[in-house]
Write a structure and sequence with these properties.
CATH superfamily of the largest domain: Hotdog Thioesterase
Order of helices and strands: EEHEEEEHEEHH
Radius of gyration: 18 Å
Number of domains: 2
Strand order of the largest sheet: 1-2-4-5-6-3
Helix content: 10-25%
CATH class of the largest domain: Alpha Beta
Mean pLDDT: 89
CATH architecture of the largest domain: Roll
Amino acid sequence: MTAFYLPLGDDRYEPTRSTESPWDSRMQHGGPPAGLLGHLMAPDGLRLTRITLDFLGPIPRKPLSVEVTTLKPGRLTALVEARMVVDGKTAVVARGWHMAAGPKPPVVTPPVTPPPVPGGVSDHGLPGWGYGEAIEWRFREGGFGRYNGQADVWTRVRHPLIEGEDITGTARALIVADSINGLSAALDMN
């Protein structure tokens, strides 16, 4: 199993092949950087409630550093900014609002049972590129190469975000969030 990033110490990381973009093997797909910044910006005791990401250009698949700054500290809410820097240039800027979880609400909502995971053979995307192989895809409707603008797909991140660390639910969601446009395309992307 390969992680998306190998820790190099001092807030530095080495992206692995699992971050590889389908457009250029020297670049990263947007999902893993989103997951990394979202994970590293989390203040203790608060949960991420909103995140924005600005990709300032293609993200090279080279060693990088992450700079995290708390813009608005607080015990109940905080605004945190994280920057991914590659070759001395900022490649991605993320800003996240975080909130304290608070007490359990008095109203009980009945649980919603999700639909079962689609059976059959999983489709790992387009073979030959790292990110596509690092995510498991199971389609209920649509699929890669089907351009009807609709898809219903189950995904599973197959690797840890950072080698030696457990992956969080937030990081899992951020890693796959940038894939939606490719899963429900109405036009061929080539």
